[in-house]
Amino acid sequence: xxxxxxxxxxxxxxxxxxxxxxxxxxxxxxxxxxxxxxxxxxxxxxxxxxxxxxxxxxxxxxxxxxxxxxxxxxxxxxxxxxxxxxxxxxxxxxxxxxxxxxxxxxxxxxxxxxxxxxxxxxxxxxxxxxxxxxxxxxxxxxxxxxxxxxxxxxxxxxxxxxxxxxxxxxxxxxxxxxxxxxxxxxxxxxxxxxxxxxxxxxxxxxxxxxxxxxxxxxxxxxxxxxxxxxxxxxxxxxxxxxxxxxxxxxxxxxxxxxxxxxxxxxxxxxxxxxxxxxxxxxxxxxxxxxxxxxxxxxxxxxxxxxxxxxxxxxxxxxxxxxxxxxxxxxxxxxxxxxxxxxxxxxxxxxxxxxxxxxxxxxxxxxxxxxxxxxxxxxxxxxxxxxxxxxxxxxxxxxxxxxxxxxxxxxxxxxxxxxxxxxxxxxxxxxxxxxxxxxxxxxxxxxxxxxxxxxxxxxxxxxxxxxxxxxxxxxxxxxxxxxxxxxxxxxxxxxxxxxxxxxxxxxxx
Amino acid sequence: xxxxxxxxxxxxxxxxxxxxxxxxxxxxxxxxxxxxxxxxxxxxxxxxxxxxxxxxxxxxxxxxxxxxxxxxxxxxxxxxxxxxxxxxxxxxxxxxxxxxxxx
Lengths: 508, 103
Fold this sequence. Notes:
The complex is a heterodimer.
Chain A: H1 2-19, H2 23-28, H3 35-46, H4 49-62, H5 66-91, H6 96-100, H7 106-140, H8 144-192, H9 197-207, H10 224-237, H11 242-245, H12 254-286, H13 306-355, H14 362-386, H15 392-405, H16 407-416, H17 422-442, H18 444-450, H19 464-480, H20 485-492, H21 494-503
Helix pairs in contact in A: 1-8, 1-13, 3-8, 3-12, 4-5, 4-7, 4-12, 4-13, 4-15, 5-10, 5-12, 5-21, 7-8, 7-13, 7-14, 7-15, 7-17, 8-12, 8-13, 8-14, 9-12, 10-15, 10-19, 12-13, 13-14, 15-17, 15-19, 16-17, 16-19, 17-19
Chain B: H1 4-11, H2 13-46, H3 48-51, H4 63-102
Helix pairs in contact in B: 2-4
């Protein structure tokens, strides 16, 4: 069943590859996707391994605090809808680099945008591949390393030959399956406890080492800086995710862009709420049953596998196969979307516009895109091995932190602030990026968890409070300090950009 | 330099209304949702026991869980509300503006 599903998605990719005729098709599906379908695709992009496996796994170990992530996901999308979606659609073409470079100097801004996109893409991909590796490992008993390599190769296949049409269709189908599968799982959990949430909660509390405290805050994070950083990661980072932003260019106009984000928010909010129930169900029904735990007392496949094991309990082997296939397809599709955005960043932003000054051929651009895909695939496979066992939700939050610190400040300021100059954008963006990366490496999860040192140099779980501040501050400072003629011209150009961002292209 | 059309747009009352109304609603709703989220997160860190108290005696649903789902629900409602408003009111203003510009 599992393999059949994978085969189906490959067929769809092949079909889409036949329909990819132009650069427009490859990047943005020719601008023909409708609001509801795009909403599903966006939701599908976001409801990745991180959400389904990671957050249920997080609930499994820590209880309530996982809901903070859930709220974050929803609010993040509200922010996109209110502040970003329409303007982006009105202004840009394929990537958010296009938008950021609208009135600023193309070359440096595109370099920044591409760097930000790559950093976010790779970190997000690590989260997905860790989840996929654990999944294949738990299902087939394969070595984690082998599983990671297999996923990496499949992902590369998807993107190289399909482009945006393939990923949109795959995302939509996968979104539906995930919503349905997750709902059945959640429903199954509730039914097991007579549709009574209190019963479910009590059972979970009885089984978990934290007892009643499982349901209260404090399981993971206990200091204000970390928790505000986490919130900021979602609030600012979701709007800075390149693969999500790219989806606004697949709809015909701003009106559809609005509707697709609203639909996406609905789907995501619903799913986020469901994941907590699934997590509690896993605590109640999976813990204490020996068959799910390895010789070392750890859950087979790690905490990321809590929901998978639960599906076996609720619906037997067939349901387990179904949910695993859905989870795997989820990961594969998200990985495609992210890789696509990263490949676009390199081929469209860097190659076509920086290296070739806007005069490359479509064929060349597509070729660069495909080569990039292979390179990214290889990198992520290697990094995926390094981060084995980490909770996928937390890994995704790191990716969001980077997006929040680089892409978000530059995007927001370029759309809303007349005073942003090229220098400010570039310096601020790189400052945010550097701060986020450095602090993440120095944080407990990486410094202690992955690299094995005794004590983390940066004591908080997330860098966001400082890195976002660095991004905005750097952008502001270097913009106001910039008194060149070019800066003045850029401020003047703001009005025309502003009009277009508000009401679209009226000149025809 | 702005074109003639662009200058007319900037000065047009329908455009200014559109900008003003949109700015108020979007930043207002955004501030609300963001404020609730950050506020709730801080409350979770500073008053974990308080939030952990059951809403109704004997129920497992505590204030923390209730508020968390509440904020999620609010986010969904806010999105729907904005889209509805934008597709009716904003669209109306925009049509008015375009009609005037064509004349």
